[in-house]
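Chapter review: from sequence to fold.
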Amino acid sequence: MPVQAIAWSPSGAVRIVDQRALPEAKIERDLESGEAVADAIRTLQLRGAPLIGIAAAMGLVAGRGSCGRRRATASWRASTIWRGYSGRRGPPP
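The token string follows.
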């Protein structure tokens, strides 16, 4: 049974599966800020270079969305990450 290790929660937080609990339990945590994501990485709740990179990018976007502005939609966040990687506007090809 596949497990989605990271995703956006309905509230706009970064939802992770705490990998310290696997395989005995599946514990999901909602991280509301970049600092919370950084702490999850430091405490090994997230493991593996690809997942750490994705979590770091999502944490930056989550933190940006909560800086007194209206929380961004998941679509906006995805396009923001894409622009950051590619330097272009619009959705990925």
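Two observations follow directly from the output. Residues 6 and 78 are 14 Å apart (CA to CA). The helical segments are 34-42, 49-65, 74-86.
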